[in-house]
Design brief:
By secondary structure, the chain is mainly alpha-helical. It folds into 3 domains: about 90 residues; about 80 residues; about 90 residues. About 70% of the residues lie in helices and about 0% in strands. Keywords: Membrane, Methyltransferase, Transferase, Transmembrane, Transmembrane helix.
């Protein structure tokens, strides 16, 4: 087999070429038509968009106008509401004023009716009404004269005049009033002297006696009457009780006398306003100043006893029936 020569293969024929399809060209007028159609569609879309945009702008503008109109109407309604509320408040205030005036007119009418009824009452007109007014005035004057000025005699005279005027009233309804007036006049007559006036008189007498009578021992330090040892050593040594100091020198004595006079003036002012506590406290301080001026002696004890008796004096009127006649008269006149 090795000697067998290789045989040549048979020649293969080459494949025939495949024919390529030929493309047909589109005519130019077709492209022109398509371009015109695209331009028409674009123009149509643009005009439609512009129309829609204009319509939307018009709708938005009309909406804004409507909103502005609604806002203006709301503001106008609010202004009208505030104006109506202000008118209502003014009307309410006017009604309140008118109601108050109407009530005042009603009260004045009631007072006028009451006054007319009183004038029409046969028990309250003419001379009897004048007598009752005069009696009330005299009772008021007598009470105030006694309480303010402490004028017991003036109060008695005023009550006596009131009793004489009240005797002219023939109405039996005032019989008990005359009895009360008689009892009050008897209490005034039994009073004796007015307590405040009596206390002031005794205080003035005590003050005058102190001014007229020098304290014992006040001139013990004078060089003419003092013993020889006091005249020799009085400027160097002074002997006083250890429990209290007596003002012997001029400056100390003037201060003590001034303090005593101030306390007596305070006591006098307290008695004027019927302040019993202030009266007693002022006299207690005056007693302390008195011990500074007077050395221990029977005269000092006597003056202190007088001060204690002054402090024990009453200042108020022991007259519980004072003003009872005036009160009953007013009750009788106020009764319907």
């Amino acid at each position: 087999m090795a000697g067998i020569p290789p045989c040549d293969p048979a020649p293969v024929s080459a494949p025939s070429p495949v024919p390529t399809p030929t493309l047909r060209r589109t005519p130019a007028w077709v492209w022109l038509v398509l371009l015109v159609l695209a331009a028409l569609l674009g123009w149509r879309g643009w005009t439609g968009w512009r129309a829609r945009s204009a319509q939307e702008h018009a709708v938005a503008a009309s909406t804004e106008e409507r909103m502005a109109a609604l806002t203006g109407r709301i503001d106008a309604l609010r202004r009208d509401q505030r104006a109506q509320l202000q008118r209502l408040q003014q009307a309410d205030a006017t009604n309140r004023v008118l109601r108050d005036e109407l009530l005042g007119v009603g009260q004045r009418a009631a007072l006028l009716e009451d006054s007319i009824a009183r004038f029409a009452d046969p028990d309250r007109h003419g001379a009897q009404a004048l007598r009752l007014d005069e009696t009330e005035l005299l009772l008021v004057l007598g009470e105030q004269r006694l309480l303010i000025a402490g004028d017991l005699d003036g109060a008695r005279r005023a009550y006596a005049l009131a009793s004489g005027v009240l005797e002219g009233v023939d109405d039996p309804a005032y019989l008990s009033l005359r009895q009360v007036l008689v009892q009050e006049r008897a209490a005034l007559d039994a009073l004796g002297t007015e307590p405040r006036a009596a206390a002031l008189a005794r205080l003035d007498a005590f003050d005058r006696q102190l001014r007229a009578q020098p304290p014992p021992g006040a001139s013990a330090g004078s060089p003419t009457t003092a013993p020889w040892w006091q005249r020799a050593f009085g400027r160097l040594v002074q002997v006083q009780p250890s429990e209290r100091a007596v003002a012997l020198h001029g400056g100390d004595r003037r201060q003590a006398e001034l303090g005593l006079q101030i306390e007596l003036s305070l006591a006098r002012a307290a008695a004027e306003r019927r302040d019993a506590d202030g009266f007693r406290q002022a006299l207690g301080r005056a007693d302390a100043w008195l011990t500074r001026l007077w050395p221990e002696s029977p005269a000092l004890r006597q003056e202190r006893q007088r001060l204690q008796a002054l402090a024990a004096l009453p200042l108020s009127l022991p007259l519980p029936t004072l003003g009872s006649t005036l009160q009953q008269l007013r009750q009788l006149r106020a009764a319907p």
